[in-house]
Amino acid sequence: MHQDDLLDWHAAVLPSPRTLQGRYIRLEPLDPKRHGDDLWQALQGPESDPALWDYLPYGPFDQRADFDTWLAGNAETRDPLFYSVVDRRSGQVQGLLSFLSIVPEHGSIEIGHVAFGARMQRSPRATEAVFLLAEEAFALGNRRLEWKCNAANQRSMRAAERFGFQFEGIFRQHRVVKGRNRDTAWFAMVDHEWPALREAFQRWLAEENFDTEGRQRQRLEALRG
């Protein structure tokens, strides 16, 4: 698309706090009363990922009361709009993520505030959580879905590329987070790319793509071809 092309453009629809159903997980609007205990265990418990909070602007939380206050604040906002990740098999809440930077008049929206428990990381549940939000973003009429992270956060950078976001550059000295400089890496996928990306996600998440021990047969990147 040329930058000066005229568009038959209609603003995107704002996301609403509703449940999104997948094969492995469902995304529920964050409810601290129902989700808080599981999230505390997943994100702060003895088996949680010690590196989880390294590049997030909040956490870790030493006190449950501080964690509960943080959850309550997240549940009240609509930008960001937070979802809890519920494992359909066990019913456990294993992580959080959100929509943010929601600009419907330009059809732009971001996935961020990703905090997945250790049991969820590098699993079909993590991939499906991102897929469900991407599906929702483009179904709402957005033209652009963003992913931003600290440029030092190699895990997030690799994840963005694996999911099919294209790297767009670095904003140098973009933020100060926890007293440290943050250079921000920008990634995005756009609406005309989504049909092929969607097909690859669906093929990767299909039951037949995993062996009896849950190991993938084909990588997501390979399925994009």
TrEMBL record:
<dbReference type="InterPro" id="IPR000182">
    <property type="entry name" value="GNAT_dom"/>
</dbReference>
<feature type="domain" description="N-acetyltransferase">
    <location>
        <begin position="25"/>
        <end position="183"/>
    </location>
</feature>
<dbReference type="GO" id="GO:0008999">
    <property type="term" value="F:protein-N-terminal-alanine acetyltransferase activity"/>
</dbReference>
<protein>
    <submittedName>
        <fullName>Protein N-acetyltransferase, RimJ/RimL family</fullName>
    </submittedName>
</protein>
<keyword id="KW-0808">Transferase</keyword>
<dbReference type="InterPro" id="IPR016181">
    <property type="entry name" value="Acyl_CoA_acyltransferase"/>
</dbReference>
<dbReference type="GO" id="GO:0005737">
    <property type="term" value="C:cytoplasm"/>
</dbReference>
<dbReference type="Pfam" id="PF13302">
    <property type="entry name" value="Acetyltransf_3"/>
</dbReference>
<dbReference type="InterPro" id="IPR051908">
    <property type="entry name" value="Ribosomal_N-acetyltransferase"/>
</dbReference>
<dbReference type="GO" id="GO:1990189">
    <property type="term" value="F:protein N-terminal-serine acetyltransferase activity"/>
</dbReference>
